[in-house]
Design a protein that fits this description.
Elements (H helix, E strand, L loop, with lengths): L2 H36 L4 H22 L1
Helix pairs in contact: 1-2
Length: 65
């Protein structure tokens, strides 16, 4: 595989990672909405769980990139 092919493949992977990141952000936002609607907990407890989900999501994205 030559350098041009490698760069093209790497560009494709980069695009896929960006798409995955966008999907994960959308999923996180959906989970956030669902948690707020479904849980009868205090707003502080909900906020703590949302922060945890955000950190976990960012950690997964960083490991992939």
């Amino acid at each position: 595989m030559n350098k041009a092919d490698c760069l093209k493949k790497l560009e494709g992977i980069h695009i896929q990672l960006r798409q995955l990141e966008k999907l994960m952000e959308e999923k996180l936002e959906n989970e956030r909405s669902g948690i707020i609607e479904m849980m009868g907990e205090s707003s502080q407890e909900i906020e703590n769980k949302l922060q945890y989900l955000e950190l976990a999501s960012k950690d997964k994205i960083q490991r992939v990139s």
